[in-house]
Amino acid sequence: MSNTLLKIENLSRHFGGLAAVSELNFHVGEHEILGIIGPNGAGKTTAINLVSGVIRPSGGRVLFDGEDITGLLPHVLARKGLVRTFQSTTVYGSQTVYENAVRGAYLGLYPGFVAAFFNTRRARRLREDTARRVGELLDWLNLSEVAHLQAGSLPYGYQKTLGMVISLAAQPRIVMLDEPVAGLSAEEADHVRDTILKIRARGITVIVIDHNIRFMKGLCDRVMAMNQGHELTTGAPLDVLANPKVIEAYLGRGHAAAHRI
Ligand SMILES: Nc1ncnc2c1ncn2[C@@H]1O[C@H](COP(=O)(O)OP(=O)(O)O)[C@@H](O)[C@H]1O
Ligand SMILES: [Mg+2]
């Protein structure tokens, strides 16, 4: 068993009277891929929004590498190595692939930092380092050839990969992906799965939310199933998917995801 990188203790978030996440406990080992599944409204997105600082918890703690990081802001967390990707908001269609990726590299810096040091030697070195790092990333994920095209002109699958490049450019230790294959074909989903496995092979820890069972089975070391803000069960993907409580949670809602499990 590898070291625990992320530990979530009794995490809760209420919206008015609704407990979107309630007394949630889980951990993620270093270099692990942890999946989160559960019907719509289960609290999956809220859980990673809490961990990544997008929203503040009503209660509980988030420990990253032993440090209490509860309630810190996303850019502070990005600098510490926690980065969350968003479903589609991270890719700017009118920017080139390269410009999008460079923006990711500055995720962990305070707004204004780059501008303030724009003409200094330090800034020049930062820009050169960034350009090299981004170039390597684009190369590594086979996006070099399209680096100078407008991101919006690329097929959707490429944009998903670019979304990952943006997060990786911030040099994270852990990335959190919310439904990375929603809307993709089976072939594109396989490509995203391979990309995430490559990301892990680089030593990066991954939390991934998705409904696509085939995708999750081929990717995750462990899966946590959630329902109504709570953890239902956590374990090996096949065990979790076969768990009657998990099946009931999906079927009980009677929504589209029930047909896919
Ligand atoms: N900003 C918000 N304000 C009010 N309610 C919210 C907000 N975000 C999420 N919720 C509610 O919290 C519950 C969990 O939502 P969410 O975390 O998005 O679920 P999931 O990602 O599993 O589909 C839902 O009932 C949702 O309507
Ligand atoms: Mg969600």
UniProtKB/TrEMBL annotation:
Residues 6-253 form the ABC transporter domain. Keywords: ATP-binding, Cell inner membrane, Cell membrane, Membrane, Nucleotide-binding, Transport. It comes from the Bacteria. The keyword Coiled coil does not apply. The keyword Cell membrane applies. InterPro entries: AAA+_ATPase (IPR003593), ABC_AA/LPS_Transport (IPR051120), ABC_transporter-like_ATP-bd (IPR003439), BCA_ABC_TP_C (IPR032823), P-loop_NTPase (IPR027417). One of its GO terms (molecular function) is ATP binding. This is ABC transporter ATP-binding protein. It comes from Paraburkholderia bengalensis.
